[in-house]
Amino acid sequence: MVYPWHQPLWQDFLKLCQQQRLPHGVLLTGVPGLDLTGFANAAITYLLCHQKDKTMACGRCQSCRLMATSSHPDHQVIAPEEAGKAIKIDQIRSVHEKLALTAHISQWKTLLIAPADKMTINAANSLLKLLEEPPKDSFLILISSQPEQLPITIRSRCQHWHMASPTPDESRQWLQQNGYALSDQQWQLLARIAAYAPLQIKQMLDQNMDEHYAQVVSQYQQIRAGNDNPVHIAANWQQQDLLGILHGLYFYQHQQLMAADNSERLSIEWQLMDCIQATIKLVSSLNNYNKTLLIEDFVVRIRQLSVHDHRIRHTG
């Protein structure tokens, strides 16, 4: 399925196909909630289709039917074997020989790797050989919402296709057209956390995440006020999506930053913002980390900064 926000990149893809200038390797990036995988599958289906027109795959030929059932012999998919795990070198090695063979029913042989930033260093090095000496008539798409986690050697050998989020108005309109009428409060909270990605906002609404983030903000306020046990809050956050919590706090802290009424308060709010940003970066960059220790360190740091904030309030 090609969503409205896919269209600019889809037109670029079609133009490359018509000009026969399609690269062997593509790095497709964008924030979560834009359905990058759906776009990649649509592009590969179009490429492999036997009866495509100028804009879309036919959806009826043998190739399209096989793609619809995830059984196309000329298409390979690599993903972590378990959720949260890494993509291993053996998984990459397994496709080397397959891509070297002649295509079975289509002109092209295709490979989709998602999320590509989950590859181990050894797996990335094995993939590098494919990118440096791509087999004839092969097309590889790497998908990542965190491309900075990929080795520069991989990024430099792929053509970068970045999918932009729709504008705020376009995102909200799509949600309304699909039965999601957000209040202004819901929109202001969820839209910014999701970077205006419609499918991410939709998922948050389906999971009542607006209520969840309100609870997280309340707990954060308790930490700052010194009115709750940091260990208790840390234990609560341990059971939840830590990155989601941090993004919600980032949005709230941005509001606090804008409301700071003097230079000393502004300094404290900036330090709190930096603390949240640093923790987001740390969580995003590590496949394996001690979640309990990281949360406790974060909560203690927030509490320490808040002590200084209390002193400023009382002396101000």
Automatic annotation (TrEMBL):
Pfam families: DNA_pol3_delta2. Keywords: DNA-directed DNA polymerase, Nucleotidyltransferase, Transferase. It is an enzyme of class 2 (transferase). Its EC number is 2.7.7.7. It catalyses: DNA(n) + a 2'-deoxyribonucleoside 5'-triphosphate = DNA(n+1) + diphosphate. GO terms for biological process: DNA-templated DNA replication. It comes from the Bacteria. The keyword Glycoprotein does not apply. GO terms for cellular component: DNA polymerase III complex. Gene3D superfamilies: P-loop containing nucleotide triphosphate hydrolases. One of its GO terms (molecular function) is 3'-5' exonuclease activity. NCBIfam families: holB. This is DNA-directed DNA polymerase. It comes from Methylophaga frappieri (strain ATCC BAA-2434 / DSM 25690 / JAM7).
